[in-house]
Amino acid sequence: MRFRFFIIDDDPSSRKMLHNAIEHEDLGDVVGEAEDGFGAEASIILKKCDIVLIDLLMPKQDGIETISRLQEMGYEGKFIMISQVEHKEMVAEAYSKGVEYFIHKPINRIEVISVIKKVMEHIRLERSLEGIRHTLSLFDTLPKEPPEVRTTPFIRSVLADFGILGESGSQDIIHLIEYLLKRYRNERVKEFPALKEIFTDYVTYSSATDVQREVKAMEQRIRRAVARALQNLASLGLEDYINPKFEMYASKYFDFADVRQKMREIEQNEEVSRVRLNVKKFIFTLYLETKEHT
Asked: How far apart are CA 248 and CA 229, in angstroms?
């Protein structure tokens, strides 16, 4: 298999040197580049990158913060940090975040190729060991459930785009989508039943003691998270109507008339919203998108 690389560096010449080194040595494919870590996380996850080459110091979001955000979103690839030798404290912090490999500036082509090859060999070894463990597990006589596809990174990337990953309802959304993917594993679903029925089924499945109370609490948490997502999306539309995230999510996850109404309410500083929040559409769309990407 070919390795997939993503390069993040605010210096265009550094990005070009790294890109050229990878292509000239045919080490793999550079599937994306960014001049800052801020906003690059979703692309890295969606493009299933194996290795991220990332600058330590960048203007909006430095390399360490970007790595932390990616790890929170479930990314499991490898990082190669590009750093200045004098930033020893930050290098030490990078080590604590799990960064094992460094390329020093000014960039040296030979060092770049050598470090990348070491990382690639490390990945191959890890995958080989994982293959051995999987083979050995086949000899286990105990019945096993079918292996589950890792869905959490994609769901987290979408919720992060909406700016609600820190909301308490986001964890409910993640668990609910994963439950629905199990429940409808071999079915084509054109529409979900009523939300309350879905919540009740999930809470019952998760062995909650007081089902009715937990359903109500879960519904409130999810509703608050989706309302916050709409608020953030509408604010984004007011700032930049042609923002790619606004164009991608506005009519897909919400009724566009509701998005426009929320934008008007924000512009006029209205305290009471008249938007009838379509939580079911949000959940169903996220379910379909997640199923498509796994």
From this structure: 14
* b/e code 262-276 from CB counts within 10 Å (16+ = b): bbebeeeeeeeeebe
Average pLDDT of the segment spanning 238-246:
85
Q: What's the pLDDT at 96?
A: 75
* Among 125, 113, 124, CA closest to 27: 113
Mean pLDDT for 193-203 is 85
Nearest to 87 by CA among 108, 63, 51: 63
Is the pLDDT assigned to residue 141 strictly greater than 50?
no
| Phi, psi (degrees; rounded to nearest 5) at 204 | -65, -40
Contacts of 192 (CB under 8 A, 6+ apart): 180, 198, 280, 283, 284, 287
> Residue 152, class by beta-carbon neighbours within 10 Å (0-12 exposed, 13-18 middle, 19+ buried)?
middle
* Residue ranges of domains in the chain, CATH in brackets: 3-133 (3.40.50.2300), 151-293 (no CATH)
**143: how many CB neighbours lie within 10 A of its CB?**
5
Please state the φ and ψ torsions of residue 242, each to the nearest 5 degrees: -105, 20
Element (H, E) at 33: strand 28-34
- pLDDT tens, position by position, 107-138: 899 999 999 998 998 888 888 877 776 666 65
pTM of the model: 0.51
